[in-house]
Design goal:
The protein is of the alpha+beta class. Strands 1-7-6-5-4-3-2 form a seven-stranded antiparallel sheet. The chain has three helices and seven strands. 23% of the residues lie in helices and 45% in strands.
Length: 141
């Protein structure tokens, strides 16, 4: 089993409260996901994120391939971090930690994603040729 990790940081010129309020609104995920992902939230989300929350999406991880993606918010520490984990979707494993920390320049938004690609050796080749670049681009736009 090959496990991959993405670690990305961005400095945003906003307050920690502004960043947190944006991040914990599931409807905002579409706003920060690149258009080529064809990202659509299928379940109505009318409250901020909470542990145990299940969110259904439809995504296009690769051109011409559409799939459903279901994640669960497993941990939330108000104003500081939350964790989402895939329950069903394109990855064999998806564990995504979102952290925000106040700095004198605004906030540092840090993402740590541990993930596994399905299909064994073929998945490893796909990761090398395509998936790693797409995931990295999603977090560094």
């Amino acid at each position: 089993m090959k496990l991959y990790q993405l670690h990305a940081k961005q400095v945003l010129p906003i307050s920690q409260k502004e960043a947190w309020n944006f991040l914990v609104n599931p409807a905002n995920l579409k706003k920060i996901t690149p258009d080529y992902m064809g990202f659509n939230i299928l379940t109505k989300q009318d409250r901020k994120m909470y542990p145990g929350q299940i969110i259904h999406y439809k995504v296009n991880p690769l051109p011409g391939i559409k799939t459903k993606w279901v994640t669960e918010i497993t941990h939330v520490k108000d104003g500081e971090y939350f964790v989402d984990e895939q329950r069903f979707g394109p990855y064999s494993l998806w564990h995504h930690k979102h952290f925000i920390k106040s700095t004198n320049k605004g906030v540092i938004m840090e993402d740590i994603v541990d993930y596994k690609i399905p299909m064994g050796f073929l998945g490893q080749i796909a990761h090398y040729l395509l998936v790693k670049k797409k995931i990295t681009r999603n977090f560094l736009v």
